Amino acid sequence: MIPWLGNAENFPPLELALREPNGLLCAGGDLTPQRLVQAYINGIFPWYSPGEPILWWSPDPRMVLFPGEFRISRSLRKTLRQGGYRVCLDSGFKAVIQACARKRRPGQAGTWITPEIQAAYLRLHELGYAHSVETWVDGKLAGGLYGIAIGKMFYGESMFTHVTDASKIAIAHLARFLEQQGFGLIDCQMNTSHLASLGAREIPRDDFILNVRHLTAIPPLCGRWPADAAAGDWR
């Protein structure tokens, strides 16, 4: 059994998280901005399927990407240099989260990005916490991602692509932008071969929490990010 989280209760200690499934900590609660921010600064995130109660997770180890360790393959570097696309920040958050929700992934019958989740993160976007990175090709949204920024910590949530490499282009620009802005870590949550190919790696949860506590205490970039802040060449 896992603890049930009442709306007014704090999260239980991370040491109570299950080993199988890895990181399941508790259920219940709500998706208010206050609750979500509290979760992220404690190394916790929501992830559940339609029809389930809200489930809260904190896996050990944790998959992370240090911005300066982003790995650009030869083919991706060629794509970045060729251009033919435009990368923007926070210019289409709603479209990005909706595209992520529509994306079908292997082994998943539906999406965890329910209308309830979308509404909650749109509210976080309005409050300046949630951000999107979009890759535009010929004026159309070709790929992108969204996540949460608190202090100098970025928590990646989901990504999608309609055009080859469009999401990788978005991640490459995000990593460079975050490094320039002094961000120390990108939380990738779960281990996947795709993220590993981009330079992400696992670290112990205790080390992750130490990073989170330090980075979330640093004054943030307030409000919406400048749309063209991630632009630039790759020569």
Would you give an account of this structure?
- It is built from seven helices and eleven strands.
- The longest helix is centred in the C-terminal third of the chain and has 15 residues, at 166-180.
- A seven-stranded mixed β-sheet has the order 6-7-8-9-10-5-11, with helices on both faces.
- The termini are far apart.
- The chain is an alpha+beta fold.
- The chain has two domains: 4-60, Alpha-Beta Plaits; 63-216, Aminopeptidase.
- Strand 8 and strand 9 form a beta hairpin.
- It has helices spanning 33-41, 74-82, 93-102, 115-126, 166-180, 193-197, 205-216, and strands at 4-5, 24-28, 45-46, 55-57, 62-65, 86-89, 130-137, 140-150, 153-161, 185-189, 201-203.
Report the helical percentage: 25-40%
Named CATH topology of the largest domain? Aminopeptidase
Biggest β-sheet strands, sense, barrel: 7 strands, mixed
| CATH homology superfamily of the largest domain | Leucyl/phenylalanyl-tRNA-protein transferase, C-terminal domain
CATH class membership of the largest domain: Alpha Beta
Task: Count every beta strand, where a strand is a DSSP E run of 2 or more residues.
Answer: 11
Rg measurement, Å: 17 Å
Number of discrete helical segments: 7
End-to-end separation in angstroms reads 54 Å
Regions with pLDDT < 50 over 5+ consecutive residues? Answer: none
Structural class label: alpha+beta
User: How many structurally independent domains?
Assistant: 2
The overall pLDDT, averaged over residues, is 93
- Main sheet strand line-up: 6-7-8-9-10-5-11
Approximately how much beta-strand content do the residues carry? 15-25%
Question: Helix and strand string, N-terminal first?
Answer: EEHEEEHEHHEEEHEHEH
Please tell me the CATH architecture of the largest domain by its name. Answer: 3-Layer(aba) Sandwich
Gross geometry: globular
